[in-house]
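Need the bound structure for cobalamin, inputs here:
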Amino acid sequence: MESLKKAVETWDIKLAETAAKQALDAGIAPGDAVENGLGKGMETISNLFDEAKIFLPQVLAASAAMEKALSIFEPVMTKGATASRGTVVIATVLGDIHEIGKNVVAAMLKGAGYNVVDLGRDVPPEKFIEAAQENNADVVGASALMTTTVVVQKDIVDLLKEAKHPAKTIFGGAPASAEWVESIGGDQYCPSGAEAVEMVNNLVKG
Ligand code: B12
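Answer from helper R.:
Posting the output first, comments after.
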């Protein structure tokens, strides 16, 4: 777990790969490794970036290390998924290229047996609605990591209502909050991947 954290903190792709494999060999649950290993490393990176002790190239390198480890965990997380619990459309909103958190949530939902339609990043609100209609989505989830892009979450709620689509909505990312989601008429705020599956289960149950 410590090596996974360190791999992100030191943007060491090789270490990320070996630490991920070791974690799986040691029987550590991938979700746990992501939240408590890689995620903690990314918290350190966020703090260092906030304090201007590191800069964008280092954040990018840390992201690459995290993504390397995620690519090893993802197939294990999604293995044996039966895709019968419901359909979730998920993406990062227009103008926003942050996708690590969204990818973590998508992998966890797949692993829990959801059919996940991942539209990627920088996705216009209209595309969320189109995908919800095409796939009969039960839930629409959107990630926004910037104060300038979190407003798109409101557009998604408004367009779903306009289209009279019954999908429930779940939102996450640093600038989002329970108060924000309530204020835009969304259904659920989710602060972490660890809580995403249970929250989506509850939304699907109604
Ligand atoms: C990594 C990172 C990057 C990487 C992204 C790499 C990638 N492939 O995604 C790179 C280097 C590319 C990047 C770029 C930029 N970044 Co940046 N970045 C970050 C950083 C340090 C970490 C984000 C991250 O990956 N965290 C780890 C994941 C696992 O956590 P998470 O995203 O929070 O997701 C979890 C939960 O929030 C939740 N969740 C999130 N979304 C959703 C959605 C649903 C449906 C659910 C259920 C749950 C959920 O579950 C996830 C899993 O646990 C943040 C700092 C921060 N505090 O967030 C800044 C940050 C978001 N970036 C910031 C900025 C400003 C930028 C740039 C504009 C910088 C620039 N000058 O170019 C560009 C963005 C360009 C653009 N148009 O999008 C600012 C935003 C500030 C603001 N006020 O809006 C932040 C807050 C840093 C800061 N303190 O200034 N960035």
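Comments: The chain has a mean pLDDT of 95. Residues 56-78 form the longest helix (23 residues).
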